[in-house]
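TICKET #2291
ISSUE: user wants both folds in one file
ATTACHMENT 1:
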Amino acid sequence: MADDEFRYLSGFGNEFATEAVDGALPRHRNSPQQAPLGLYAEQLSGTAFTQPRAVNRRTWVYRILPSAKHPAFRRIPNGTLKSTPFDEIEPDPNRLRWNALPLPAEDHPRDFIDGLYTVGGNGDSRTRGGMAVHLYAANKDMRDRYFTDADGELLFVPELNAVDLHTELGQLRVSPGEIAVIPRGIRFRVELPDKPARGYLCENFGAAFTLPERGPIGANGLASERDFLTPHAAFEEREAATVVQKFGGNLWAADYDHSPLDVVAWHGDYVPYKYDLATFMVIGTISFDHPDPSIFTVLTSQSDTEGLANVDFVIFPPRWLVGEDTFRPPWFHRNVMSEFMGLVKGTYDAKAEGFEPGGGSLHNTFASHGPDAETYARASTQELTPQKLDETLAFMFESRWTIIPTLQAVQAGHRQRDYDDVWSGLSRNFR
């Protein structure tokens, strides 16, 4: 299915109403004595009933069978998917970097669930705080297998090829350069229009992602609400399906006698959505100095401390550099926040080499980081004419808490054990 064959509704945080069959939505009420077309009415609450309207999220769905119609779930192996508590190893202050996660072999097909690989995380999914960094690498469609995450919402960042997300509320195609968010508890399956597919996944255990405040920037800039897209209602019917649920950090499965994606109509604001990162309005200096990277925040999960994010999603997209008498790449830095960086395409302007698309780096609380020796030598001596950074897209999952890597990530064959060497060429220039 071509991307233009997917139908979307526009807006962030909107109250939407959509139906796949005319007349499926009841008028002026949520739960009539008999829902239209013989459907069942069901509410999906993403927040507590009594949370303020500004953050309260719920959706009413009208489905062929209630989601309650299923047998007991059974435990299944977690594979390379890990969750809280992240305590396999003691916290380590060292900087880490990885090459891209290897793709599955053609003769060993893996779907999205089997292809999940956890890099690290923090917090506690059971008390709804913290986050986890996962990767996915898959070469098989999920046809009669479905996934849902009761522990957190999922932020998709495709790196290699698109993914089609078939959710309870409709279908999204998400290509490299776009992101998608599937809220906690919503069921979905993943198809791969081009195989194989690989990307990054941020599992947010805390408050739902929202747009950051603009402050003195004003009413415009950064990500615009109208550029976020939510799917129209779509449904499917089948006689057998397996639903895999992440619950309490583990995987559970149940066999259904129907598809969990049988919602014919819905209205509400607890919804999956996607966003094209090319529509992000980049803010930067037009005089001197490189601004703090928070100026590139697309989405934020707020904590109970103002200005301190549970997790931020930050991008480093194509942009103009025009600062005068300025070291233009990101500067040397130590930070109370912890940063996992990934690269969707191109080259990151603070690393001349070694940081490849699909790879990642982890700089935890107060770990010293910044441009490598080659980048510093070039940027500190180049002629400062206006420069366009193009054909690049890096991003960062930034969290208030230390991101503890998993044992498998530390021991991985694709980990760069010589990462510290990128700074070894820095020399004394004091005179």
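ATTACHMENT 2:
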Amino acid sequence: MTADDKRAREVVEDFVIPKGSAKAFFLQKGQVLRITAHEGKQVADVKFINAHDHREQVCAWWSSCLNSERPSGEILGGAKRVKELYSKPPWERVMLRVIDDKVGDHLFNGSCSPKVRELMPGDEYLGNKTCVELFAECLEPHGIGLEDLEGSGTFNVFMPVRFKDDDDGAWVFFPPSCEKGDYIEFLAEMDILVAATSCPQVNVINDYDPKAMKYEILA
């Protein structure tokens, strides 16, 4: 952690994304984004996009891999937590860094979508919308469509997933890894367009009770 990471900061903007909703907003280079589970166990799906070139986006799963690969043997992260968030090839730049993480158990992958809803017809969604559809709504004013988004570019905040020790390695979902008041902080290394949802799934992923999430921008 650098001296800049440790310095005192002030909140310049704060807001709540209601349950089953989404919001797109800007984070300037050098600012810190804090996401807090202020109501309790809840997952936030978050995408990070270069504010000046929307083609450059964080690739969450690739970031997980790159945090695990260091010639020195130092491990910055892996399948549950990371310190550096990289954009997809051909850029592969650090777009943000995680500077504080009270939980350290997340997923780096995609988001619930109409196909997920089709394959799991028993699950309920607040407002009958998935995170993918919520992303589409909040990013439309910025000229970004679903076809423009990195499919594996979602940072699934507080979403623990494990894999079965069998021939398939099937996914196993658990309740959110956070408790009320837990948070994670991201330091922007460039100007970022952030898109975030309070996941609407009414199942184990959100402890069967979707909630709102608190966002603070610090400078």
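RESOLUTION: both attachments delivered.
EXTRA DETAIL ON ATTACHMENT 2: The chain has a mean pLDDT of 95.
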